[in-house]
Amino acid sequence: IEIDAASNRGIDDIRNLREKVRLAPAHGKFKIYIIDEAHMLTQEAANALLKTLEEPPAHAIFILATTEPQKLPDTIRSRCQRFPFERAPISKIAEKLSEIVKKENIKISAEQISQIAKAAGGGFRDAETLLEQVAAGAQDLEKLVGFSRLGELGDFFNDVIAGDTKKALHFVADLSEAGVESKRGWEAIWWMPEKSSFPS
């Protein structure tokens, strides 16, 4: 059972969950509750959840998923086992996208797959979403992932190193005016330093 704590974050939502937790599973030995974005719970909701975590029914297993564990109350963190998940390497994401492209017969180049993999920020789901948008023709790849001015990124990094903030900020503003989504634009800048010609 998955619960989105970003939209079900109040104490009433957790009280409702606690009522359901008491019921034994109709099939199988356990009921598994996945609370996604657990850090979004209100303080009151977190306190209510704590009571269940302290004395959970034998059939209940809770998985709290979060990208910001430091925002969870210490009382909750102390009662959980932590299993950190690292972001997926670009090579693995590109490999998965290549499999999808081959299976679905999508016309896209290896370079475009690489760009999508870099823009996904380590997330397989984000990468597949980007691929779907590009394959459907709903979005231009260069604007979508922020690589439309790839050849100028080397100059951008050199401007930053030289302390020419005016030129660097002008480049960022141009990306926005070109219709590049801000998050994707920054990801493009983040992933491209190896392509820049830094002065020695």
Automatic annotation (TrEMBL):
Gene3D superfamilies per record: 1.10.8.60, P-loop containing nucleotide triphosphate hydrolases
Alphabetical keyword list: Nucleotidyltransferase, Transferase
Limits of the DNA polymerase III subunit gamma/tau helical lid domain: 92-136
SUPFAM superfamilies xref list: P-loop containing nucleoside triphosphate hydrolases
InterPro entries assigned to the protein according to its UniProt record, in alphabetical order: DNA_Rep/Repair_Clamp_Loader (IPR050238), HLD_clamp_pol_III_gamma_tau (IPR045085), P-loop_NTPase (IPR027417)
Gene Ontology molecular function terms on file: DNA-directed DNA polymerase activity
Pfam families referenced in this protein's UniProt entry, alphabetically: DNA_pol3_delta2 (PF13177), DNAX_ATPase_lid (PF22608)
Enzyme class name: transferase
GO biological process terms held by the UniProt record: DNA-templated DNA replication
EC number: 2.7.7.7
Name by which UniProt lists this protein: Polymerase III, subunit gamma and tau, DNA polymerase III subunit gamma/tau protein
